[in-house]
Design a protein that fits this description.
alpha/beta; Rossmann fold; six-stranded mixed β-sheet; binds adenosine-5'-triphosphate; ATP-binding; ABC1_TM_sf; transmembrane; ATP binding
Amino acid sequence: MPSRRDDRTYTAFPRPGWPLLAGSLGLRWRALLRLAAWSMVESLPAALSGLVIARAIDGGFLAGDFRTGLLWLGLLFAVHGVGALATRFTLAATGSVVEPLRDDLLGAVVASAVHGDGVDRSIPDSAKVARVTEQVEEVRRTTGTLLSGARRFVFTLVATTVGLLALAPSVLAVALPPVLLAIVLFAALLGTLVRRQYAAVVANEAVARSAGEALAGSRDITASRSWEAVCADTAGDFRAERAADLAMARAVALRGALTSFGSYGPLLCALAAAPLLIGGADGLTVGALVGAISYLASNIEPVMRLLTEVLGGAGLVLVVSLRRLRDTCPEPSPSRVEDTPEAVGGSDASVEVDDVAFAYGGSGRPVLDGVRLRLRHGDHLAVVGPSGIGKSTLALLLAGLARPDRGVVRVGGADPADPDVRRTDLVCLIPQEAYVLTGTLRDNVGYLCEGAPDGHLLEALANVGAAELAERLGGLDAVVDPAALSNGQRQLVALARAYASPAPVVILDEATCHLAPSDERRAEEAFRARGGTLVVIAHRIDSARRAGTILLLDGSRPLAGTHEELLSASDLYTDLVGHGEVRLSRPVP
Ligand SMILES: Nc1ncnc2c1ncn2[C@@H]1O[C@H](COP(=O)(O)OP(=O)(O)OP(=O)(O)O)[C@@H](O)[C@H]1O
């Protein structure tokens, strides 16, 4: 079967949604690892700041040793410098994860638009394209925000916990419960937030749709003085949008309250417990308390805001945009593969010629003009017409050896003249002047089916009526001298080569003209029994009559039909039949 260099199919794109997002991110796992590594470096200040501050106070400033205190603060400054450098690299790594996502999403959206079930390809829906493009952009942007928010949340929280554990476990014990409670409550609220945001988006789209329709019909509405009725109709959509927005606003207000609780709760708890903790069982020093407070003030507060506002906000938009994309993009249909390269040269090989015109270079007058033809796998067609009318030219076009100036030629769904298509796997043309190579009989018969077993080649020779010739020549190993063969013998060798080839379409361009009528019949019947599509440029009436369909080229309007149909429809055909030869030697009228 023919092959193409690009074997990617559109159906390889999954539908836009979480699996696509996860697959796209999964493909960039190296960049994700890089991102994690740089995030760890970036969170060093979060892990060390409290510890360093405690040392600066206890071992430096409170002990009256300013130099030591300043040295510790200098170290803190250097650690922040390293963290800032790491931030630069995290941005680059985030870009290399998120940017390809846009291509993947657009690929999925376009595949869905082209191959989706129920897509009406005759009506370009530019509004939908714009909306979908906007949603793709939204998904890409929010994925970036989410990724960078999520990694800062996780790494900063872990770094802070580790730092607090090392510096003041008693403060950690007091501060951790409000943090965990805020996270649990936020997780419980998330479902409501998603539902309300989705409802708000849908209500917003409904308003845009109904208002757009009203504006588009404004002339008619004004002419019929029906503005009041239209306003009454659209008012329902506006009310639904207002209700959805209010419900969303209430959920967002609750989210704000949770943010404040998670941000300041740990700090307040630590400050309230401070008098008990200082000098307590684990000997909390003033420096350690200040260091612990700095952890809570400079790390926990931003981390909780990240969770509820950035992750909650961007995550919400991402979930809703992905769901909207999935809902608005129909499922690519796995059965609709006719446009994919896989379908090219499929087993159901057929011939399609659509409104083809062709002129040899230089001569302005077309040899063929307006030729249409459609053959199914297994069809047998004879092409007849006066000499010079263009029968061989049609054969060349079908075999991909010439390109039409206008119209389309497809064999097995592919353009046979496409250099990316393996033409010999698609179609085999045997011209009148049979071509025999200097080489063994095996080389000659197996030329188009390299590596085929001898049995296959011998069977081909026998079926086209060349078994006796093969025996006389000395079998498959015999070296053939083309000059020593008669025209008929050369045609038998060429016929066996075509028979043995894997091409599902065989074109015999007067390829049996030097054979006796009985041998011609035998060869043609062998090709019919071989399967596939057979096109015979016929020169004898019997040869044409054997075909299921006859195409008569007459220079003006090609006609196709059975022998009887053409007899009653065309004087030219009757004329050809009267001569016994369907190729008249008189010139084209
Ligand atoms: N390579 C070529 N360059 C220019 N003109 C050509 C070329 N080959 C064929 N022609 C012209 O194109 C026309 C159609 O030729 P074609 O061989 O297709 O006709 P045909 O019907 O097969 O004829 P025949 O039955 O005699 O083989 C003829 O006028 C021929 O002279």
